[in-house]
Amino acid sequence: MRFDGNVYYHECEPYPDHELHQEWSDTARVLDEGGFTTCWLGEHHFWHKAYPVACPNPVLVGMHLASITKNLRMGQSACILPDHHPIRLAEDLATADNLTSGRLDVGIARGTNSSASIQFHRAADRRDSATNYRLFDETLDIMKKCWTHEAVQHKGEFYEFPVKGWSEDDPRIYKNDPEHYGPDGELIALGVMPKPFQKPYPPIWQAADSNSSYEYAARKGHAIIGVARSFEGTREAWNIYRDSASEASGQDLPLGVCANGQTLNVMRTFHVAETCEEAANDARHGINTFFDMATGLNPNWAREAFLAKGETLSDEDRNLDWFDFFQKYEMLFVGSPDFVAERIDKFRTELNCQHVTIWPNPGFVPYKKVRRGIELFAERVIPQFDNVSTAVAS
Length: 394
What we know:
Blueprint: E1 2-6, H1 17-33, E2 38-41, H2 58-67, E3 73-76, E4 79-80, H3 86-99, E5 106-109, H4 129-148, E6 154-155, E7 160-161, H5 171-174, E8 204-207, H6 211-220, E9 223-226, H7 231-249, E10 265-272, H8 276-297, H9 315-319, H10 322-328, E11 332-335, H11 337-351, E12 355-359, H12 367-381
Parallel strand pairs: 1-2, 1-12, 2-3, 4-5, 5-8, 8-9, 9-10, 10-11, 10-12
Antiparallel strand pairs: 6-7
Helix pairs in contact: 1-12, 3-4, 6-7, 11-12
């Protein structure tokens, strides 16, 4: 199995920026030494009062972390595409891929329902979901063109490249370049550089949880990083992905596997201690605080949204705190090493899960404890999966 990690953001907790960034560097070294494959880094803007404190530029942070590690890949969970100019983001990611000699994974997302995205592009406003989705889709399309086309042209709803009206006067610039210039020097295509180190471009994962997003990703041919679905909700979404990807690719794909060989990625809030009781005592307050605030910022993020269509919330479910609710529906990797390994093994055996990311953000837990939890996972969980085969789920 593939195991990835993340850094500790101290969600909801005021924390010194420099100390936070130093902890991220230390965490990257721990992940690298522990045998993790990728460190995924979130992107957030403007939200103050300590929620959240993920970086505004995961590509930049990832470049630093790559420079101080040997094997660890860097990914974004995720680049919020509507917040970025597509050519600039394509250039930045391709540059990072070259500077790391291909140690880059690309994570993409539409963004959360907050005040952030509209500050970068009016069409990015998540309150107009249909427009936001079209902008997201067009941005991704342009990025792929930048990575794969020597002469980039695009005309869409939100962007047109090259912008009309630019011509070169000196024929020495354009006369031997018909791909990019017309006979009179008009700019007709862009030469975007560099091209990625990985061909045709780095692996793409879309951070999302809705069934429609799984279907979209399947038809686009890239994978998903799934965070907020119950175990049965994950099964439901993965079945939708498999059916859509099989139809789009003309292949009979197994559960959890993409047509290009990528694997669907289960990311879970994580904390490991020596005992389940200790882990729960550490993590409960922070997880409750985070999701109380998160659901307030995003009113669509209600408890029903985490579940499969066949699951029904009971009165007891509605009265559980967030920690107990998520533990009941197998949405946390919080407990002893053996408890967490058992929970992961259920994903492996029933869903053909081959790819797990730990999100070590219990909240209000000292960094030393979070760091030790990652070490315990590397020492006592990962080895349990070294010699097991992944079942092909039907």
